């Protein structure tokens, strides 16, 4: 026998036909001794010689065995065989079965709940197993089809048409400015290569002739290296890397491409802004009304548009408060110093932070009404400190005109006191 192993009720016997037939009879005898019965109608015979094999007509095996003369079959949810068969399996068993769920999510009246379920349960996570067990090129078409369904679901639940650029951003992780809806097609090389590396020892134990550098693996490496930055490419002498690290490299390259192709300075500044620590925390909040974490549908859809840099208004106009330009992306609306909105936003943040600090027993000292202490940047470092004092919350506004250049610079980090009051 060349191979003989099992997992739960799945048994694989591989070798010359006569040896497999003898092993099958021994398996039936041993199973019968412990009260188990082989079900021939669920067994498959795969002649590796193809249709010319004399085993295609049974060759002494039970007549109820299903014969696979084309050499295509599936084992433990993994298609094995020609690319067309693998692609058809992923399409029928994964993509087609996910479509009703995606459609139902798109029709939910609460987009906050729908997006949370889409990201954590019904998008990339649904195909991880397929991506880890099937070479990327063997089911690339099915993976792209699934990505299209996820994109359509996002467009419908968010009521926003997505440009290719906006979809590329949405496919990034939350910490890199996206929505966490990773592309299955783009990340399939990372999943497959990580799986090959992680299972190499187990495969070697099952088959001493196993070699991890077979053509499918080589093609996956080439595909991965073509999608990442030069510093992140896989070298032949490099130790195995985890899927998380490989996917992070793909995200890094995608983010760099978005930064380079940004239409203007404001777009680059926005891309830096949504990468700041905590900028995507609202996307992970459970939509609980009891805890004040639920966002109504209309407001949530506006937030999605703002994050993905999609227009909130159809045209530009003039701000009625300061006569400045009210842009289509709500940059000015969030930073306008007139009308009191920034002060209200500051006060709400201050109150919320003070409430959480008080609940933690930190005894915060909230600023008194009618008083406006000097800004933290105007004080000395020692005066601005205070372990348990909360006198002022100061939040910079990187979307203001004078701050855009600073935040558009690649690698710029969040800085305090960038202009204009708290809010």
Structure overview:
The protein is mostly helical. Helices cover 45% and strands 6% of the residues. It is built from 16 helices and eight strands. The strands form four sheets. The protein has a two-stranded antiparallel ribbon with strand order 1-2. Strands 3-4 form a two-stranded parallel sheet. It has a two-stranded antiparallel sheet with strand order 5-6. β5 (73-75) and β6 (78-80) form a beta hairpin.
Strand and helix layout:
Blueprint (H helix, E strand, L loop, with lengths): L2 E5 L2 E5 L2 H17 L10 E2 L20 E2 L5 E3 L2 E3 L2 H24 L4 H12 L5 H6 L6 H19 L5 H7 L13 H15 L1 H7 L8 H11 L17 H18 L4 H9 L23 H11 L9 E2 L6 E2 L4 H5 L5 H19 L21 H4 L16 H8 L15
Parallel strand pairs: 3-4
Antiparallel strand pairs: 1-2, 5-6, 7-8
Keywords:
two-stranded parallel ribbon; 8 strands; mainly alpha; 423 residues; two-stranded antiparallel sheet; disordered C terminus; 16 helices; elongated
Quick overview of this protein structure:
45% of the residues lie in helices and 6% in strands. With 423 residues, it is mainly alpha-helical.
